[in-house]
Each structure stands twice: as C-alpha cells, then as structure tokens.
Fold:
Amino acid sequence: MATTYTPIQSTTLSSSQSSVTLSSIPSTHTDLILIINGSMTAATGAYSLRFNSDTGSNYSMTGIYGNGSANGSFRATNQNRAYLGDGANTSQLVNIIQIFNYSNSTTYKTLLTRKNQITSSSIEALVDTWRSTAAINSITIFPDSNSFASGTIFALYGIKAA
Amino acid sequence: MSFIPLGFLAASGAAAGDFVSIQTVSLSSSQSSVTFSSFANTFKHLQIRGISLASVSDENLRIRFNSDSGSNYARHYLGGNGSSSFSGATPNETYALGGLSPNTSAPGAYVIDILDAFSTNKYKTVKSFYGDDKNGSGYVLLCSGVWLNTNEITSISLSFTGSANFNSYSTFSLYGIKN
Structure:
C-alpha cells in the first residue's frame, strides 16, 4: 500500500487569462483530480475543457442543477468540449473535476464534476465522456466568453491505485 | 521470510490523514461481482474509485458489507437523466446504492465513500457520486446510504441488481484515509 493523492501541477493566475493549459501530464497515476478555485472577469455562462487539444465533436455530457428556485437536468451531445459548469460570474466558484483512468489507451474517458458558486448561480453535478481511447497528456480549460480572473487557481493531483 | 497476505502490509511511511491505496481489482474478463476483502482496519474512512463497462445498462449498483444481504440498509438518491431530475428514498433495503450500470463502450465512473468504516460505535454511512454519458443517454447520480450495523467492515462487494456483468476493462480501487 502506498500513500497517494500527489500534487502534479498548480497554476495561480497573476493576470486574467482566456484559457489555461496543463501539459506534460505524466502517465504514472490512475485518476486525476483538477480543482479550479477562482472566478471570471465578468458573467460568462459556460466553461469547459478539452483533452489533448481535441476540438472534434467527441465530447458529451449529462448534468443536474439546482439554483435555489429551480432544479433540473440537462444534456449535450457531440460537443467539441467537455462542459464543466454554467452561470459562471465574478463571484467565487469551485470545481472539483475527477478524471478516471486517464492514461489507459483502451477505454473512452469519463469525468465527474461538482460545480459550486456562491452568488446568483447554481450547484451542478456533471458527467462528461470524451470518446477517445488516447491517454490524456494535456488539459485546456476555458470559458465561453471573457476570462478567468487574476488569482484563480488550477491545481492538478494524481491518484495512483494499488 | 514469512508471507504477509496482501492487504495486511503496513502502509510504511503513511502518516495519519494520508490517502493510501489498498487494493485494486481490474477485470480481464467479465464477472458478476467485485469484492474487496482482507484489508487492514487501520483507516478512518474508505473510498472506492472506479470505472466499469457493463453488459446491460441502467441496473442499480449494489453495495453490500460483510456479505450482509438482509434488509439492513437504507438509501436516498438525487439524479438526472438529461431531461429531468429525480429523487427517491428506500428504507429497509438489502443493499446500499452506489450508482448504475453503464453500457459496453462509455464507462460509468464511481466515487464511493464509506465513513468510519471500522467504528464499532456507529452505523456505517455511504455516499456515492456516479455518472455515465452515452452521447444521448445516461445518468448522473448522487446517493447516500446507511448500513444499520456497528460491526467493523471486513468485506465490500459490488454487483448489479439484474443480469448485468462487469465487462473486461472495468477496474475498481480501494483507498483509505490512514488513522
């Protein structure tokens, strides 16, 4: 048995950025945990990620949400990105994104995401599938519009199975 | 040199609060259940992480402790199917709910937390986060459950409630937070 849950990379923005890329991800873990802690420069709507710079229509998702007055479920098919949340704005948001068996070259890749935001937004739980058997070696995170605000933290951890 | 069974190896160098990998089951052929057993009781909480492919979609993932198949569990769940959210509760159930079965190509993913797994003063609480998306169908599911038993957990079995098997390339790993 070995201690795991290892920090891999961490980026704290010193100025706003319209996208963040985590690259050269080692293949030595089993699962990845990506934590986003920050905010947007303005009301943004959705934000997403891509693996290995894949801009093809190889992503899809299913989610549930609650915003304090309504709840429901949503879906998107044949997307060119993996959706991480909606209703992003200038208030603090936290995403915990779990990426399973990311370095295997046999199965499609599944992500589970929890999105939490303080103000005028929603809590969401999502599953995304990337229909690729390629091992993941880079992750690019970006909002639909505007930018991640200065001070936003992107922290990547690896969990290695026994 | 004496033989030490896998699972009883000390987590050498692991400090209290460390997240430790304990066991992994990876399937090279389909089977109907996955079981973790013979693990040490030197952890505060346990977590199972995994992906599965399955022969039949949308069956419940059944979690049982110590081979207990009696009506000693209860559950709540909140989920979404892409068009509507839903919730439910079941007392006096014969298993804790860990998620669902996916299909043969889009893996379902599971994070199953078992709190105070070795306490002899508490019932055992289970919470799980599951999702599978098949590009037009699928579910996301948040579940909570309880095993109404104060025994230490010595085995954890996973199976589907209908005819579904775990297909090859399914893999589940057990982790613990060190005492």
Notes: The two ends of chain B are 28 Å apart (CA to CA). Chain B has a mean pLDDT of 93.
